[in-house]
Design a protein that fits this description.
homodimer; alpha/beta; TIM Barrel; 8-stranded parallel beta barrel; two-stranded antiparallel ribbon; 6 helices; globular; binds zinc ion
């Protein structure tokens, strides 16, 4: 019996604007609409960012609250995952919406380079976000932008900073971070089996790598991020 | 015929103070003295930081110039490697001494967490340090604190930002970065063979991992950092 494949839909992200792609959902009603279509098509997790009216990324808890309300009404049973990613705010702002108790939230446990800057996740912020997720019983999706992030997640689970079992997402294809490399993908899968044997994982290929990485992931027993 | 093993001695580092270990060489004459002892014992590379009079790390080119002068006189033929690490300065300060044309300089090509902070190596700074090393014909020692840093070095060599062949150091055992993990070490070695087949590598285990990682490294055909 094959295990069910979880499809995780990232409806908006924090970067693309309407000028890049007029189909990017920006307003809350566009986001709810777009998520509902994915939900009907079988997606089971919604990874959500929110935006300001000028399309810039936001970490405003009020916007997250309204998104949660809309999605719970339109997509019953869908797992809602809030982004705590660094593009939407600085420091503890990034976790200001966790008290809304989404089902899941993204959690970066290490730092790495992005195309033009450092993606900063200082150790004390990581620990604080993880503790908020324990407090509000939110399941983290660990964003593994590099190999050591899987090791760090295993360590945090072993010492109680994260609840078991872990859910890890391999992020591949971000310029200046880990490329979409098949050998690394296979090693990530082996590392998960070795360090976090009861956990689940998924993989996200960024930009032109999306389809390829999804194929690797589904074939290897992981979940897929669109 | 086995290839000669390069022993790289890091005489001072940027963190320990006299109060931690009275034997840490701080002044230039202490550094030259200590390096000379390692040179006599067979070390072939000296990885050097310089300090201010109050023992804090410095990036003062004048201090590096005097260190270079002292070492060239006392340890003829020893390879001198200047640190461009982030503890000694911010931004381009970190490379201000490269015009002194040391034989080598350390180069981080990605960012990662350190025990209490983010080790920030933004992409534009990495590219600038690499270009200075090309200009002054300095051989970089790539500091691989994580797996993607090896991929980044290979990419930078392929597109001409680094001169071939690469010399990579695996850094293991830093809290919140890559642990001293034997399986990862073996995968690093395979990754070097796959992505940078003509390169050399060494491995540094931090603190209590030093001896263990050196043993792995020498046994696997790499060089050793003390
Ligand atoms: Zn996201
Ligand atoms: Zn996912
Ligand atoms: Zn150093
Ligand atoms: Zn070395």
């Amino acid at each position: 019996m094959s295990k069910p494949c979880i499809i995780c839909v990232a409806i908006t992200g924090s970067v693309p604007r309407k000028s890049d792609n007029p189909a990017v959902p920006i307003t809350l009603s566009e986001q709810v609409e777009s998520t509902h279509a994915a939900y009907e098509a079988g997606a089971s997790i919604c990874h959500a960012h929110v935006r300001n009216d000028d399309e810039t990324p936001s970490s405003d808890p009020e916007k997250f609250a309204r998104l949660k309300e809309g999605l719970k009404a339109h997509c019953p049973g869908m797992i809602l995952q809030f982004s705590t990613g660094g593009r939407s705010g600085a420091g503890k702002e990034r976790g200001g919406m966790l008290s809304l108790r989404p089902d899941m939230a993204s959690l970066s446990v290490g730092s790495n380079n992005f195309p033009t800057r450092v993606y900063e996740n200082p150790p004390d912020l990581v620990d604080w976000l993880a503790s908020e997720m324990l407090t509000y019983q939110i399941k983290p999706e660990i964003e593994a932008f590099d190999l050591s992030h899987i090791h760090q997640a295993a360590k945090m689970q072993a010492d109680g900073r994260l609840a078991a079992p872990a859910y890890v997402q391999f992020v591949m294809g971000v310029k200046n971070a880990m490329p979409a490399d098949r050998d690394v993908f296979d090693y990530y899968v082996r590392t998960m089996a070795r360090l976090l044997p009861d956990s689940e994982w998924c993989a996200a290929g960024i930009g032109r790598h999306q389809i390829e990485v999804n194929e690797w992931s589904v074939a290897a027993g992981g979940h897929a991020r669109t």
